[in-house]
Amino acid sequence: MSKLVTLLNGPNLNLLGLRQPEIYGRETLDDVAAKTADLADELGLRLKALQSNHEGQLVDWIQEARGKSAGIIINPGAYSHTSVAILDALHAYEGPVLEVHISNIHKREAFRHHSFVSQRAEGVIAGFGTEGYLLALRRMATLLTA
Fold it and tell me: Residue 113: its pLDDT value, please?
């Protein structure tokens, strides 16, 4: 049976393709999920893609991934810079974690330069647009076969 990877997207990512397309592009989150699921299939993985604007829901999903999901790919959105709760949940998760940002957070406002999630992530992909999700999934496949 193929390994499950959980893909979590945080606040406002449900507006992908509509919100600030000059920064985030025109692809929707459904487009991203479909492309990522197709690649997961090619890589012999299964993908569970979820999105919430609510911090507690993201924490619940991270906790539910314990013992079920081989890895987590997370774009925590603005919670990257504020959520110790998400960081604590990720610390309780046993598998690899990769962090994705569509934009290059280091070229943006100073408050976006720090991410709590990065303290737990095995790697961070930022600034590659929605292609970053595919890069993260390829890396996750490597981590899960090592």
Answer: 58
Question: From the candidates 54, 79, 93, 101, which is the catalytic residue?
Answer: 101
Positions of E strands within the chain: 3-9, 45-51, 71-75, 97-101, 123-126
The count of domains in the chain is 1
Asked about 133 being catalytic, the answer comes back as no
Edge-to-edge strands, sheet with 123-126: 45-51, 3-9, 71-75, 97-101, 123-126
Domain interval for residue 86: 3-145
Catalytic residue flag (residue 93): no
Confidence of residue 85 (pLDDT cuts 50, 70, 90): very high
Quote the radius of gyration of the chain (alpha carbons, Å).
14
Looking at residue 32, its pLDDT comes to 96
- Please report, in angstroms and rounded to a whole number, the separation of the first and last CA atoms in the chain: 17
- The model carries a pTM of 0.93
C-alpha distances in Å from residue 37, one per residue of 9, 44, 119: 14, 10, 27
CATH of the domain at 23: 3.40.50.9100
Amino acid code (one letter) for 52: S
Is residue 99 scored above 90 in pLDDT?
yes
